[in-house]
């Protein structure tokens, strides 16, 4: 150091290594970054994950197929419905189980409600990270209504265990359908209000426009999925492109990043995709409520569920993108291996690259814009 | 392109290196010789007729009876909307395969996880450390014969049954 001091006329700065997290409000759960900074500029941010590792994959080898569904809830507790569905899809494909038509609609309704709830958390906490407290409270108020609806549908507010192999656990009652419609009538104008409050806010835009741009090549190479991928201008949605459930019958748009205020693939684009996805989800919900046929909500599935030996990789479009369940069966009652591939895991791996040369405050914006969710990373 | 055509293209390009193709299953897969995996992956990514832009997933399967660990690569192409599964068989006592980090950056983290939980060593990986578990953890939990260590850092990993605790 003395040598350095001499060459710089007695003054020098040292690189600083600081630890962000694991209990930092902006880290959305328990994750940690080892940040090397030169003043305010980050030279390296190394993610340190694993604090929430609950070995959900290993548990999968110890419990039966039916018994594993509640465990999948815990993979991503903000969007439990999607993990339920992905696992059930994989199991159904393996065994060739049919899902009743009403069951499919119940699934889509529950999933899209869950997507809105998850995106509300995402954009709400994002605003809070940037320093806007009010929108967070507004977002949570709306989410609370969805939680109430979820409670009506399946009895749980967070970890649903609603989607079962062959259909859904409980039918959605006509009263609940009416209440969902009521919620949609109320919620659609709220999105516009939210835009006036946050999306159009000059400070918010200045903080995000042009920050942490993800190019198309990087998005592919790091396998970003969901809104993060679409934010970089790639029109790709599993609901549309590898259709499952009743999505082919429904009409909806796939919003992509448009360089609305900054450059294509910046933090604002990713945020803006989420806002518009909530509107699309509302559209899907309205169609489903209209089209839902009468009938049983779940098909007859043997209690001893033994799919033939084989393997299956099922994907669903979760709020954090492509969620894949790779299930291998050896013909017994227990899965031989369950692998959960989540969007947050790959999104987390790109932070190391994107954080080089940005400001400390921008790192917080970057984490928020990627919508990484600690339980989903660690599983 | 369907899996059969992809396999045919690969067989033509890498004779003897690919084989054991299964096309009549839910997820068509083929086995690749471990020594050729990087070349095969690079070909699959860059060839204009297949264009597998992304590595959707990389994981492993443990087969103690066959004395092998299988590394499984799920490839996907946005351009053509097709997919293929590659498998590499490795010996269970010293599983070692070249890293595909140079082809898809995301492999860095996927391979770290497989190293952490299965003990597969990826040659040429830039940063092969444990990712989920602490650095000083012993054993590879997702192997079928894994036995949990009784204590870690002086903390017991077992929990006494509740009844026993109450009786004490």
How would a crystallographer describe the biggest sheet of chain A?
3 strands, antiparallel
Strands of chain A, total number: 8
What series of H and E elements makes up the topology of chain B? HEEHEEEEHEEEH
Largest sheet of chain B: 5 strands, mixed
Q: From N to C, what is the helix and strand string of chain A?
A: HEEEHHHHHEEHHHHHHEEEHHH
Average of per-residue pLDDT values of chain B:
85
Poorly predicted regions of chain A: none
Strands of the biggest beta sheet of chain A: in what spatial order? 1-2-3
Strand content of chain A: 5-15%
Shape of chain B: elongated
Derived structural class of chain A: alpha+beta
Description of the structure:
The complex is a heterodimer of chains A (379) and B (168). Chain A has helices at residues 2-7, 56-60, 65-73, 80-95, 101-130, 133-154, 174-199, 202-208, 216-221, 227-231, 238-241, 267-291, 343-354, 360-370, 374-378; strands at residues 16-20, 32-38, 41-48, 163-164, 167-168, 310-318, 321-329, 335-341. With 379 residues, chain A is an alpha+beta fold. A three-stranded antiparallel beta sheet of chain A has the order 1-2-3. The longest helix of chain A has 30 residues, at 101-130. The model of chain A has no long low-confidence stretch (mean pLDDT 87). Chain B is of the alpha/beta class and 168 residues long. Chain B contains four helices and nine strands, in the order αββαββββαβββα. In chain B, the strands form three sheets. Chain B has a five-stranded mixed beta sheet, covered by helices on one side. Chain B has a two-stranded parallel sheet with strand order 6-7. A two-stranded antiparallel ribbon of chain B has the order 8-9. The mean pLDDT of chain B is 85. Chain A binds chain B through residues 49-50, 53, 55, 57-58, 93-94, 218, 220-223, 234, 236, 241-242, 310-313, 315, 322, 324, 326, 328, 336-337, 339, 341, 345-346, 348-350, 353, 378, and chain B through 25-27, 53-57, 59, 61-62, 72, 74, 78, 81, 85, 104-106, 108-109, 117, 130-134, 141-142.
């Amino acid at each position: 150091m003395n040598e350095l001091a001499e060459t710089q006329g007695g003054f020098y700065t040292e690189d600083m290594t600081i630890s962000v997290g694991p209990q930092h409000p902006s880290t959305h759960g328990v994750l940690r970054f080892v940040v090397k900074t030169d003043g305010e500029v980050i030279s390296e941010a190394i993610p340190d994950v694993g604090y929430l590792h609950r070995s959900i994959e290993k548990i999968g080898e110890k419990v039966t197929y039916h018994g594993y569904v509640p465990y999948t809830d815990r993979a991503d507790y903000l969007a439990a419905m999607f993990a339920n569905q992905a696992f059930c899809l994989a199991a159904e494909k393996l065994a060739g189980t049919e899902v009743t038509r009403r069951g499919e609609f119940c699934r889509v309704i529950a999933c899209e409600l869950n997507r809105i709830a998850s995106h509300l958390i995402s954009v709400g906490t994002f605003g809070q990270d940037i320093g806007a407290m009010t929108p967070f409270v507004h977002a949570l108020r709306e989410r609370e209504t969805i939680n109430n609806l979820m409670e009506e549908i399946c009895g749980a507010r967070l970890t649903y265990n609603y989607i079962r192999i062959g259909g859904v656990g409980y039918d959605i009652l006509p009263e609940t359908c009416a209440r969902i419609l009521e919620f949609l009538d109320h919620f659609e104008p709220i999105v516009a209000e939210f835009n006036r409050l946050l999306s159009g806010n000059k400070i918010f835009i200045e903080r995000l426009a042009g920050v942490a741009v993800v190019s198309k090549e990087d998005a592919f190479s790091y396998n970003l999925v969901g809104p993060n991928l679409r934010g970089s201008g790639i029109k790709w949605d599993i609901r549309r492109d590898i259709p499952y459930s009743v999505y082919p019958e429904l009409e909806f748009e796939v919003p992509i990043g448009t360089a609305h205020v900054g450059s294509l693939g910046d933090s604002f684009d990713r945020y803006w995709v989420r806002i518009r996805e909530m509107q699309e989800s509302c559209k899907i919900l309205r169609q489903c409520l209209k089209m839902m046929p009468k009938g049983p909500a779940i098909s007859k599935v043997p209690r001893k569920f033994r799919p033939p030996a084989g393997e299956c990789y099922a994907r669903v479009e979760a709020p954090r993108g492509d969620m894949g369940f790779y299930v291998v069966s050896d013909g017994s009652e227990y899965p031989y291996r369950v692998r959960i591939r989540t969007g947050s895991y790959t999104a987390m791996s790109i932070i190391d690259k994107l954080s080089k040369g940005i400001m400390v405050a921008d790192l917080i914006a970057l984490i928020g814009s990627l919508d990484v969710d600690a339980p989903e990373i660690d599983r | 392109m369907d899996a059969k055509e992809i396999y045919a293209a690969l067989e033509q390009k890498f004779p003897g290196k690919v084989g054991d193709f299964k096309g009549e299953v839910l997820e068509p897969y083929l086995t690749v010789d471990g020594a050729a995996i990087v070349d095969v992956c690079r070909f699959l990514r860059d060839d204009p007729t297949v264009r597998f832009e992304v590595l959707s997933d990389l994981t492993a399967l443990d087969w103690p009876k066959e004395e092998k660990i299988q590394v499984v690569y799920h490839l996907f192409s946005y351009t053509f909307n097709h997919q293929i599964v590659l498998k590499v068989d490795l010996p269970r006592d010293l599983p070692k395969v070249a890293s595909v980090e140079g082809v898809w950056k995301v492999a860095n983290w996927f391979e770290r996880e497989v190293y952490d939980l299965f003990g597969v060593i990826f040659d040429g990986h830039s940063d092969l450390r444990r990712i989920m578990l602490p650095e000083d953890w012993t054993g590879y939990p997702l192997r079928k014969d894994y036995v949990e260590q009784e204590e870690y850092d002086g903390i017991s990993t077992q929990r006494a049954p509740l009844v026993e605790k109450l009786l004490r």
